[in-house]
Amino acid sequence: MTQTKIGADTPQPEALDAATAKAKDGDIVTCDACPVLCRIRLGKTGACDRYGNVGGALTRMDPVVITQRAADSSGALVPFAKGSWDGSLISGANTFVTGIGAGTTYPDYKPAPFIVSSQVDGVDMVTVVTEGIFSYCGLKVKIDTDRYLGPEQSAVRAKGEQVGHVTTAEYGSQMLSLGGVRHLTGGSKKEGVVTCDTMLALGNKEPVELTIDGGSTVIVQAGQPPVVNGVKEERMRVGCGSATIGMFAPQWRHHADEVIVVDDHITGVLTEHQAGRFLDMRPAGVRVRGRKSTPGRYFQVANPGTGWGGTDISDPLSILEKIDPKTAWPGMRLLMVSTTGEHAAWFVLDKDLKPVAQPMPAPIQAIVERIGENCEPALCSVLFMAGAGGSLRAGVTENPVRLTRSVRAALTRVTSGGAAVYVWPGGGITYMVDVTTMPDKSFGYVPTPAIVAPIEFTLSLADYRTLGGYVDHVRPLASLKDEPRIKVEPWTEGNPWPLQRSPIK
Ligand code: SF4
């Protein structure tokens, strides 16, 4: 078990977790904050580096992150300026205690490390704050790119270990499902460790290189453009090939005789498409490869890849099956373009109806550039998904199902590091949160292996009492001001304020 030397500049906080027993054995303390039960020598930290033996006391080594909104002289809320906090935590309505650094409880029945009360609009509110240890958790990763990352269901690997798989593509994005209990616990020890490392890094907004069996290598970082096979992606496609035809058909109408928008999923052919017909465009007689879905919409014109429109082609003419001499004509003008406008070529048919590449006319070039202008920047999105199970719910109330019901009834608001979460319908408290809305370094780990993530439950004190909460452990927010292990951060703008009364009844 790793034991890290605590550096000279390591803060010497007091142990905050009174609920955590400290079994002393000479200079050794046993950490019981997770099932690993590290025995930690004086001046060292346990396997996860979160707890240490400071002066013989078991101590959570990181600060508890408290976020605060500030108010101007008129009372209006303004963003908190970092470093401007005067040490006062009395302004309860504008202060929120997150689970980051709060500590974990094990076994499950122990009350959460912090159960904090504050007054909001004259109503006593409670926030139950903890760090959850999640064996059941994963990441849903959305990668804005048309480029082919790999076959659906393919293994996604980090450092050679499978840490997830490719799941169904969405509109303009490739999706990965990473982590989960099977990779954490169901494979080799190395697979579990690498899975945990990968989730930890991605949750903490760090870049991770992933390789996909039968596909690409991609560097993923939350909030940043993906890098596919060494190339930074810039644009998310404007739509599928058919949608692109639908959007730009009137602009092409007087400048081209045919436009083919190359797309791995649905390639569009203007004059055959309803958009071209509606504009009374003359049929051009160009037939593309693949399977016709509906007029002007073709599936599988090529194999998926990192070329034009997410296909494997570099020569757009390779997807032309035939040019009908009864319909096409010499001099016919043909634009071939991808769904991002990144690839485009202009052809004019010669006397033998053979497409000959020509310089692109300015009006056509302008429309191609407009496709690019309408593409949003390509980004990676990382959503952490987990289920608040035994230790979390039992740390809130002796009657855990009442917490679930309270969340369902919108009496209790769930947040993660103060960030809003989406709670799935159905049983349990299964939630998702965008890691970019959480403070930096929100996630930790324990070597079971499992991910440690902050979670907070906010509700009125009256409702907390009703659901059988640990009211004897409620402490006023102001009592935190003397704690040595507090770090105040500005509230993340854009996040709904968790202590806001509505929709909490
Ligand atoms: S791994 Fe578990 S037992 Fe060891 S220090 Fe971390 S929380 Fe404590």
What does this protein structure show overall?
With 505 residues, this protein is α+β, with helices and mostly antiparallel strands. Helices cover 14% and strands 34% of the residues. It contains 8 helices and 39 strands. It has an 11-stranded antiparallel sheet with strand order 21-20-19-18-15-16-17-14-31-35-34. Strands 12, 13, 32, 33, 36, 37 and 38 form a 7-stranded mixed sheet that branches. Strands 25-26-23-22-28-29-30 form a 7-stranded mixed sheet. The chain is elongated. The two termini are 47 Å apart. The model is unreliable at 1-23 and 77-87 (pLDDT under 50). Iron/sulfur cluster binds next to loops.
Which descriptors would you attach to this protein?
single chain, 505 residues, alpha+beta, eleven-stranded antiparallel beta sheet, 39 strands, binds iron/sulfur cluster
Question: Strand order across the biggest sheet?
Answer: 21-20-19-18-15-16-17-14-31-35-34
Mean pLDDT: 89
Radius of gyration: 29 Å
Share of helix among residues? 10-25%
Low-confidence stretches: 1-23, 77-87
By DSSP, the count of extended strands is 39
Terminal CA distance: 47 Å
- What is the count of DSSP helices, taking H or I runs of 4+ residues? 8
What percent strand?
25-35%
